[in-house]
Amino acid sequence: MNNLNYKDLLGIGQLSLETIKLILDTAESFKEVSIRDIKKVPTLRGKSVITFFYEPSTRTRTSFEMAAKRLSADTISLSASSSSMVKGETLIDTAKNLQAMNPDIIVIRHSSTGAPHLIARHVRAGVVNAGDGINEHPSQALLDLFTIREKKGRIEGLKVVIMGDISHSRVARSNILGLRKMGAEVTISGPPTMMPDKAESLGVKVVNDPREAVKDKDVIMVLRIQLERQGKNLFPSLREYAAYFGVNGNVLKYAKDDAIIMHPGPVNRGVELSSEVADGPRSVILDQVTNGVAVRMAILYLLIGGLRVGNVD
Ligand code: CP
Asked: Contact at 8 Å (CB) between 250 and 199?
């Protein structure tokens, strides 16, 4: 078995606190590779990584491919529209055919909850969940944890608010699980129609008013409204959402001066987040993207079972 003792990374729910810390610590040693003149180490030479995305992606797909290339693995990318699924091939048959080419890792994003878990049961390759429906987006949560630890020096004891469309967000679910395991105090905020049922059972507080929600928080994580997953109108209009629940300069007046602003992207500017906040001095949104490459290098490295942490030259 590899350094993680798992074949697959399917969700934050499966990870122990020690494993999360191992991934974050390993990512720290890989971050330096990305600022070298020659951004490549031979760690995964001879290994192959397939990225298979059924939904659009800018950050996650590019980041996994860049991470694999920086580790010298071979990368192959496949999207639903360019695969034989458009000719009627099933998900499992597609996965079995990819397995027949003997890849080491398959990174998959799918609109259905559980699709990566299903594939993982049918292939020998390690499977990484790059986002499944409204369920989990573990690599996003890990890069968010990495960024919080980098900016704040710790996670334990911090007060974090996650704002927006919580009930349709796999990013929210993975972050709630990860932040709670790391000892942060988590609040969720947004319209009541976008809060999950029995939110308190997740170990979080619910505060609907954004001004109240940002008070005393060390980290303000804003999420995109997942219009593609809602299926019905959960608020009257985007303009009213922005007016009542958008995070803008007026809302930030209630926040601590040293609070950091996070967003997983893509940002709907002027809806959940104003440009003055997204581009302002407290925003770490692009740092999250930078850190995503190092965190995904750590995930691939640990899953494939490469050299020990610290020996990345
Ligand atoms: N954060 C995130 O998952 O972005 P993409 O959809 O661009 O991959």
From this structure: no
Instruction: Give the Cα separation of 313 and 307 in Å (integer).
Output: 10
Tokens of 252: 């930030």
Candidates 189, 195, 307, 292; CA nearest to 247 is: 189
Atom of ligand 1 nearest to the CA of 55: 6
Q: Is residue 198 part of a domain?
A: yes
The reply to whether 148 and 271 lie within a common domain is yes
CA 42 to ligand 1 centroid distance, Å: 27
Nearest-angstrom CA–CA distance, 115 and 132: 7
Q: Strands 126-132, 205-206: parallel, antiparallel or unpaired by DSSP?
A: unpaired
Does the beta carbon of 112 sit less than 6 angstroms from any atom of ligand 1? no
Any domain includes 280: yes
- Give the residue, out of 53, 59, 223, 273, with the most ligand 1 atoms within 8 A of its beta carbon, to mutate for a pocket test: 59
Per residue in 82-107, pLDDT (tens digit) is 899 899 999 999 999 999 999 999 99
Residue 175 shares a structural domain with residue 94: no
Residues 127 and 216 in one domain: no
Report the chain's mean pLDDT, rounded to a whole number. Answer: 93
Predicted pLDDT of residue 3: 61
